[in-house]
Sequence to fold (992 residues):
Amino acid sequence: METRVTALVVAHRDVEHLRRTLDALDSQTRRADAVVAIAFDASDEVRRLLEERPIDRLLTSKEQLTFGRALAEGERTLEDPRGDDDFLWLLAQDNAPLPHALEQLLARFETAPSAAVAGPKLVDWNDASRLRGIGETMTTRGKTVTYVDDQLDQGQYDTMSDVLAVASPGMLVRHTVWREVDGFDPALGPIDDGLDFCVRARLTGRRVVLAPRAVVAVSGDGIAGAPRSRRWSVKQRRARLSRTAELHRRLVYAPRVSLFWHWVLLIPLAVARSIALLIRKQPELIAAEFRAAAWVVFGGTHVAAARKRLAAAKTVGWSTLNDLKMSSREVARRKRLEREDGVPLGAVERSDLRFFTGGGGWIVLASLVTGAILFIRFVPATTLAGGALLPLSGDVWSLWQNVGYGWRSVGDGFVGAADPFAVVLALLGTLTFWQPSYSLVLLWILALPLATLTGWFAMTRLTERSGYRNLGAIAWTLAPTFLIALAEGRPAAVIAHILLPVLFSAGVVAARSWGAAAAASLLLALVSACAPSLIPALLVLWLVVVVLARARFGRVLFVPVPLIALFGPLVWQQGVESGRWIALLADPGKPIISPDVSVVDLLLGIPQTGLAGWRDAAAELGVNAMAVSIAVPVLVGIVALVGLSGLFLPGALRGLALWCIAALGFVTAVVASHVAVTFVGAQTTSIWPGPALSLLWLGMTGAAVSACDSLRVHGRLPAIVAGVAVATVAVPALIMVPLGDGSVSSSDGRTLPAYVTAAADDDPGLGTLRITPESDGAIVATVIRGEGEFLDRQSTLVNTGSLAADANGDLAVLTGNIVSVSGHAFTPDLQKQGIEFVLLAPAPDATSEEQLAVASRAETALDANAELENVGVTDVGTLWRTTEEVDGREPGAVRSVGTALSLAALIAVTLIALLIAIPTSSSREAARMSPRTVGRRDPNEGMVVREVPDDQALLADPDAEAEPEWADVVSLPGAAPAPEGATSEKESDDHA
Fold:
């Protein structure tokens, strides 16, 4: 019987691709007997082109059709097949067959008369030497496996014969078989439609063969076969279609007894796979995972129709396909070979950081010794006191109870949002879980080496030279703002200074790596929790990175998500409800006075007057004050000049970016020093500019290191001079604490007398009224619940006045009655507020006459009151207690769906970020194969490698491809062995 071939061409909107395909059809050595074109949702240009060509039949549709549905529409217009010699040639608009393609496909049927389907070799649309596909199979669990996706065609697959399936582009199928198995599954899109069709054809007892000498060029438009575009939206669509096809086939192929369980487990499986995607640093695929699962779960009619179609065609058992499937061992072997073959020619791993061999370990050790010497007297302490330091809650459970939204034991007590800094303190206290407050002691002792370590790693982003890295780390450790924060007892600023370099290190590569983006997101949240005043500057930098990331902006968009989740409850209560948006920037923790500081001092990177202690040191040493006033700015200016010189050297753009960071820090410091939002007693104080100046020092130090790196060996002298200048400026601040001039001191962790803490053990809600005379003659009254004040229980809602601790004024009236001889009985008021003790805080040594007079009158009134009995003088003041028993105040109930939702959101976002940020073998492999290294092979000198390290990522093009700079070398892999599940061309049909 005469062989008859009908070409079915499916077109959409790409007229240029379609023109080439039609031209290829016309140039066939064995032309198709008929051509049927199916145009769906086609453009006018496509329709005109099809009307101009000698096509036997043209079908048009305004619907969006899949390849299988379009083919079905075209096939319905054909006459019934006369026999097995009628064939359908399936082509899309971007499937251009080479001249001998149809001839070779038909020849393959002559050597394999039992075959139902023959598939061509698919090559790249623009480069016929690149293989894009040649046969498909699936694992024993049903996952699709392509034998080749992108390889150089060296004829290594030309001996393949029988396969489980072939891709749909260019497939030649017997018309009778098409009718017998009812065509493609309409539920499948461009992915796996050919695989499913071939599986059903195999289950009729027929064969599926390859015709490697038949070649079809494919572009990857996404009509037949997976779309190949690298755009983010196309990648999402490809992932969704692939997963949808896999899940759909799983339900279609599943035995009837296990079908229900496969269906029930689809959504739980999507959750589990989402966690795996997070670990594999592919969170962008999670949406596709859930969309695929939901479509299959609620698309029962599609599954039922497909199972009916399969049952109608099936004549042999599934066991006949076993030899053509790929084992898990073979899949693992192929993945291993792909990883080995995937490294670009001349690629090397990122150069060794040389932390120990380059001296980084030594300077960290020296910094550790220095910190131990400076703070050795704190080692026996239980915790630290002074400045903004207070002990932490006594156990880890209490620390974490103070996180989120809940009851706050401040004043009358209230239900409100905790400061995000409470999370940082909970993490810190958990490290020394046996005694949480001791973590503050360790923080002070280890502060210098930790700053050195994080500063050193930040410098690795700017230079490969160990000497410059070391000098940059030393300069960061000796930053005046950091040393002053240690001396004044500002734990939040100390932690922020330590974490800023790590945030910088992760942030500059956030666009290239999901792991770095997740790490940057967590670090951004922690730094912002410690220094909310930095949030505007950090968000500006984030927006800049989003713009520079271009196509990879999706990773960077995730960075502020943990910050939003962490600050959400406080933003709602402080900003939305109270309207005090600026109060969100207040310093967390115990409020202390921020001294006035001039713009000149801020420009020098010093958060206080006195030139970082040099004026006091000059007075002690008898040095002329004018000389010091000139010398310190000159020393800081040397560092700035070294950094500014980088603007006129290679890598100037990187230096400019670092100076922009420094400028943001300076502007933030100036604004912060003029924003007074926090109350210390009855006095308001401004935001401390120290963290902002840490940002300034980060930019200025980084710019200096970058400039020295651009000078190469000629930068040694400027680097040494700048390092000596920073060390000289830092000397007074560095020795401030050991000389006893700082505010920090050892503490046993008690902020109330032992008598009070003993009573609070039995009644944690018991209150102590602390009365503190002020220098202006006023009195500050504070109610302290339980065992005393704790750092993790501080609230900026109260410290900024957004939520009054004494909302009704009852405490003010009560205090006035207590400190005056009024004859008013106040025991009922004390009992109402759960206050049993009254503590008169001692007046400082240097005090005003008004303060002494107020303290004296208060003490006289308290002693004369019959409702109080004098307990005695303690380390923290004179104590009285009520003569009658008082019951402590019970904590208020928190009943809010929003509370649970906000906490759940914070936990979920944190876990997601942690899963993405934790390094895995796959992420390390991706880093190893990072396309940042290019090279060429020199016959005389061997391999010459030029590395573009991640250290230069601040200015790197995030969309740069992994193209070698030198194109004179081509690596030709050896002939690949025939994949498992394929048979050789030598196996003739007689032996099948």
